[in-house]
Specification:
The complex is a heterotrimer of chains A (247), B (308) and C (94).
Chain A: H1 2-22, H2 31-59, H3 64-69, H4 80-83, H5 89-110, H6 116-144, H7 148-161, H8 173-180, H9 191-204, H10 227-235, H11 237-241
Chain B: H1 2-11, H2 24-43, H3 45-49, H4 58-83, H5 89-97, H6 115-135, H7 141-169, H8 173-191, H9 204-209, H10 217-234, E1 245-247, E2 252-254, H11 260-267, H12 274-287, H13 289-307
Antiparallel strand pairs in B: 1-2
Helix pairs in contact in B: 2-4, 4-7, 6-7, 6-8, 6-10
Chain C: E1 6-13, E2 21-28, H1 31-42, E3 50-55, H2 67-71
Antiparallel strand pairs in C: 1-2, 1-3
């Protein structure tokens, strides 16, 4: 049960991030970036798919699509950061950068998991996340060190997303249990490396690191911001409206 | 003199390359045709993009996103080809926003159910592929190479659509109804995608002489209809044309009258989504200006760094 | 600010050991962006193992009207090709 829950947390973060990024399709500032964002979204859906298939194996009854399309808000465990609306490109790129910088470190550790499914998944995903990090970082630098307007905008994005980064390093009973077994990652131990990535990038992009203030929490228990419900009602529409249909 | 040499080259099936001499009308015709093609790919992202967030399975979601992404890529290949004729992408986009450049009017119809993703892939991409296969042999080198690449990548698009249609046509009664409804709405606009009938297509003459186009609108349309009728039968859907009948003598299907008044209305801006599609494109462009400006400012600063 | 961005020509090496081949262009304001855009546009189907990008303005092309002067003179120098030479009957591995 812990393992299933742990798997769903990772899967849901990928799925919900992908869903948000895919909303950019046909809306980006250049065609080139439109394609880039779709590529990242496709990587994330691919990651979600692998893990939801694994969740389906663990569960024995539900399919991967059941997990994606037939759970309610309280049964989703994605990081709150991932469900935040896209906002403008700066908001999206900050979200992606924060998420990818964490995932890069997280997958790095998870690839050494004793659970072969998780380690193989992390090994594959690590390559993808490295690119997501590279891509988002280069945009943070461009926007931060671009015009006055872009610097101001991306600084505001960073400030407003900051409260969602506390969740990266939380450890609850499930995390502690699986970490002890050599399956899960000790998220707390990632903080120092994460700080390094963030601080270097912030310095390079002429931004200021926000102060740690109120930090959001709760997604490990299925507690979310109000945005998730709307995202799900759109994503799950067909499966819910036609429960007997196959697609 | 140049003109004769040029025509000789065309007649002997050699390609025209960007630096070669070409008649001004040839260049103009190409710019109009290629940019229209590029804009169609880009505006065409919207009706399908409309369903990415609601795709009914993870598989369907990934496929649809990859497909719409391909369309962005194909638009880029085509803008690229067009740029070799001495016009910039910015100018082309400006022409689109000013309403001076057109795109395929099929994309001015709304996508109202998931079955529309099937109909668009099967019919709209199907029609586009017939046209594009023929254009692989177009006389302008960069356009021809672009078409070859696009055809290679697009081969999955039509299958993706047909698969959705087949699945829905054999699904619940509601699904079958959606599939038939999508076919009903998209059939006529799809076959009109090939453009006016040959008699009413004033530019076809030059385009054929210069081998920009290799087959006429009517030839391409007929070839698409001949292919598609059987595909509809196999999945148990009915093409909404009572006059559709095999003609033994011609070796082709006869088909009913197309509504050209509607076609020209939609081309000229009076279609259900004309305004929406263009506004969407403009908004993305305007909203993104600060990002493009930032990137540019950043790159200028990097230049200064190198010089100092 | 002018909306014109730089155009970059893209060359892809499809497999280790092969030559880089021209595949098209991308728009980008800096070299990092050019590389990433090329990667996202031209290697979506596993087509690449290495990418070169070069600003289009740095490409120098021969003019088509120079074509005859440039290329015809090599037409009649068949001695540069191995098939030009008469080998004794039965000679092998040469």
């Amino acid at each position: 049960m812990s393992l299933l829950n742990y798997t769903l947390r990772i899967a849901d973060s990928s799925l919900i991030s992908g869903q948000r990024l895919a909303e950019w399709c046909s809306n980006a500032h250049t065609l080139e970036e439109d394609i880039a964002l779709s590529n990242i979204a496709l990587d994330l859906f691919g990651q979600a798919n692998i893990l939801l298939e694994y969740a389906s194996d663990l569960d024995g009854k539900k399919t991967a699509d059941d997990f994606a399309f037939k759970r309610n808000e309280r049964e989703f465990f994605n990081l709150k950061l991932t469900e935040q609306p896209n906002g403008h490109f700066g908001d999206t790129i900050v979200k992606l950068f924060l998420f990818s910088s964490f995932n890069f470190l997280f997958y790095n550790k998870l690839s050494q998991s004793k659970n072969e499914n998780l380690s193989a998944f992390a090994f594959k995903s690590l390559k993808e996340v490295k690119y997501h990090l590279k891509h988002s970082k280069s945009w943070i630098v461009r926007l931060g060190d671009g015009t006055k307007e872009s610097n101001k905008k991306v600084q505001e994005s960073l400030n407003s997303m900051w409260e969602f980064t506390g969740e990266f390093f939380e450890m609850d009973e499930i995390d502690i249990e699986l970490n002890k077994k050599g399956i899960g990652v000790n998220n707390k131990s990632l903080k120092e490396d994460w700080n390094n990535i963030i601080n270097t990038t912030i310095l390079e992009s002429k931004l200021k690191r926000p102060e740690d203030g109120y930090m959001q929490t709760g997604s490990k228990n299925g507690l979310h911001t109000e945005h998730l419900g709307h995202l799900l009602s759109e994503m799950q529409y067909l499966q819910r409206a036609y429960p007997n249909a196959k697609w | 003199m140049n003109e004769i040499k040029f025509q000789e080259k065309i007649d002997s099936e050699r390609k025209i390359e960007p630096k070669d001499w070409m008649p001004e009308d040839y260049r103009k015709h190409l710019i109009r045709q290629i940019s229209q093609h590029a804009h169609s790919e880009i505006i065409g992202m919207q009706p399908e993009g409309n369903w990415i967030s609601r795709a009914p399975s993870l598989r369907a979601k990934m496929i649809l996103l990859a497909k719409v992404q391909d369309e962005a890529g194909h638009g880029l290949y085509l803008y690229s080809a067009c740029e070799t004729l001495g016009v910039s992408r910015q100018e082309l986009i400006q022409q689109l926003h000013d309403g001076k450049a057109k795109y395929s009017s099929i994309f001015n119809y709304p996508t109202l159910s998931w079955a529309d993703m099937g109909a668009i892939g099967w019919l709209v991409d199907g029609a586009a592929i017939v046209n594009q296969v023929s254009l692989q042999r177009t006389s302008y080198g960069p356009y021809s190479r672009g078409m070859i690449k696009i055809c290679k990548e697009e081969s999955f698009h039509q299958r993706q659509g047909y698969e959705i249609m087949a699945e829905m046509a054999s699904g619940t009664p509601e699904q079958k109804e959606m599939a038939q409804d999508a076919l009903n709405r998209f059939w006529w606009p799809s076959i009109m995608m090939f453009g006016p009938q040959d008699g009413d297509s004033p530019r076809t003459g030059n385009a054929m002489k210069w081998k920009i186009k290799r087959q006429t609108n009517d030839e391409l349309r007929q070839s698409f209809i001949d292919k598609t009728v059987h595909q509809a039968e196999i999945i148990g859907l009915t093409i909404p044309d009572p006059d559709l009948k095999w003609n033994e003598e011609r070796g082709h299907y006869d088909f009913g009258k197309m509504d050209w008044d509607e076609f020209w209305d939609v081309v000229n801006g009076k279609g259900p989504c004309n305004k929406q599609r263009l506004d969407h494109h403009k908004k993305a462009h305007i909203d993104g200006k600060w990002v493009r400006d930032a990137a540019k400012a950043y790159s200028e600063k990097q230049k200064d760094l190198v010089i100092n | 600010m002018s909306e014109n961005t730089n155009v970059w020509e893209v060359f892809i090496q499809s497999k280790n050991g092969l030559a880089h081949k021209h595949v098209g262009n991308v728009h980008a304001s800096d070299k990092e962006m050019a590389l990433q855009n090329a990667r996202d546009l031209y290697t979506r189907r596993n087509e690449g193992s290495c990418i070169w990008v070069v600003k289009s303005e740095y490409i120098v092309s021969s003019e088509s009207e120079d074509g005859e002067a440039f290329f015809d003179p090599s037409n009649d120098k068949m001695y540069r090709h191995p098939t030009f030479y008469n080998m004794p009957k039965g000679a092998k591995h040469i």
